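Module 6 notes. Inverse folding takes a fixed backbone as the condition and produces residue identities as the prediction. Think of it as a translation problem where the source language is geometry and the target language is the twenty amino acids. Below is one complete input and output pair. Work through it position by position during the lab.
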């Protein structure tokens, strides 16, 4: 299905007559919306988070009903430990590279944090690392900071 048609249907569903209004609703610049249209693409994650009553299946395939009904609502599974902490200080470690994930944790246990990051109402985090290089570009860029949580019990702490 043509992505421009999907964008126009969503825009019409929310009652926006102008692209600038629709872009503001999505939290993007009008130029980004214009680029999506010229490239026949869009960001499905952004649209899904901003338009929760829109069916993800319809958004990705253009098939089926555009709007979710009550039976289609998905349940969010959270771990017991996924509660937010009002104030926590997450240690920021400086690490150039890691040969593997196990060696990274061994190295971090022997390091003192460079600084601490405080973000209100954040789920529990065990540490943060700055990204260097561009091996994960465009998802992660050099200078980004990634926060992590250690998983102790792989079988019970991850919902597959």
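Target side of the pair, the amino acids:
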């Amino acid at each position: 299905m043509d992505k421009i048609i999907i964008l126009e249907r969503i825009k019409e569903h929310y009652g926006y007559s102008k692209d600038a209004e629709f872009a503001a609703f999505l939290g993007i610049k009008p130029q980004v919306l214009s680029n999506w249209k010229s490239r026949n693409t869009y960001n499905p994650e952004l649209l899904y988070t901003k338009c929760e009553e829109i069916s993800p299946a319809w958004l990705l395939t253009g098939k089926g009903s555009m709007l979710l009904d009550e039976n289609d609502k998905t349940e969010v599974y959270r771990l017991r430990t996924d509660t937010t902490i009002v104030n926590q200080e997450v240690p920021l470690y400086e690490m150039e590279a890691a040969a593997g994930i196990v060696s990274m944790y061994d190295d971090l246990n022997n390091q003192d944090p460079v600084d601490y990051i405080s973000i209100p109402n954040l789920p529990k985090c065990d540490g943060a690392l700055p990204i260097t290089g561009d091996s994960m570009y465009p998802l992660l860029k050099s200078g980004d900071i990634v926060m992590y949580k250690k998983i102790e019990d792989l079988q019970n702490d991850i919902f597959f």
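Reference fact for the lab report: The mean pLDDT is 79.
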